[in-house]
Amino acid sequence: MSTTRDEAMAALRGWSRPGRRADLLVAAWQAGETNVSALAEAARLSRPTVYADLRSRGIDPDHRPKGNSVITISPLDIEGFTGVGERMDAEYDAALRRWVDLRPGINPRGPQAHAEGMRLVALMDTVARYADVRDLLAHEQVARAERDRLLHQVERRWEALSTAAAWLAAHHAYVLAVDEARIAIDMWRERAEAALKRPFFCDSPRSEAAYRQIQEAGHPALEPALADLDQTPARTAEQLRANLDQAHERRMELASQTLRLAQPAQ
User: Which helix (H) or strand (E) holds 8?
Assistant: First the structure.
């Protein structure tokens, strides 16, 4: 007859068995936590165990999943509008002139020309805002990828110390990786905050039609990338820096013990 203690211990063993543990790690990974050190700390496991569990489920921790949407930048040319601020007036004049030239006899100051002018104004404004927001989102994505790459590089260089023949050189490479990761976190935060300050929206049927025209020309929709944008970059950056610094401080304590053993006795 099983006792309450036996049942509790059975439940505990069930949670900690490799299969169940791997399920929980995979769930966290797929939810967006791809920092192996953070996973190890949360699960109270060693990093090698986290690696082994993830790989047992077909996940290679050395290859981080990319965002849901990747913004690519290609030159804009929507009826002559490029989204470049200093060209906007000249592009508008040229577009309206082309429209009038294709309609001999039309009154360039009449209602039809006025309606076309309003359409071109909406197109010009939408293309300019699209170009601005698209570029900010692309820069944020590049900075985010670099941030994650350099954080991962910290982990790999720390692991390399275990088997490094030139230990001091390998340790110096690790220290440099930590510094590069700190810089990358700050750079990403700046890019993310800049992207958040420039929202994209369509506020009229004309701007909505212009946005459809941009997409029909082969340029990506912005909504997926906007949805993927971190809404609290300062908080995320602070947490990433805290995790990095905490792990680094502990590692420096461990490294100092190794260094003392390597020094000749006085």
Answer: helix 4-16
Helix axes 233-262, 36-43, angle to 10 degrees: 80
Tokens 């953070």 correspond to 38
* pTM of the full structure: 0.72
Would you report the helix, strand and coil content of the chain in percent, each value rounded to 5? Answer: 70, 0, 25
DSSP letter, residue 61? T
Q: Which of 38, 28, 36 is nearest to 246 (CA)?
A: 38
Query: What does each of the 266 residues of the chain score in pLDDT, given as a tens digit?
Result: 457 766 666 665 666 666 778 778 778 887 777 777 677 777 777 766 777 788 777 777 766 544 456 787 789 999 999 999 889 999 999 999 999 999 888 888 899 999 999 999 999 999 999 999 999 999 999 999 899 889 989 988 998 888 888 888 999 999 999 999 999 999 999 999 999 998 888 889 999 999 999 999 999 999 988 888 889 999 999 999 999 999 999 999 988 887 776 665 55
CA max distance for the chain? 101
Q: Which two tokens stand for residue 251?
A: 């590692």
Q: How far apart are CA 160 and CA 174, in angstroms?
A: 9
CA 238 distance to own-chain centroid? 16
The DSSP-derived string for 126-144 is HHHHHHHHHHHHHHHHHHH
Distance from CA of residue 35 to its chain's centroid?
Answer: 14
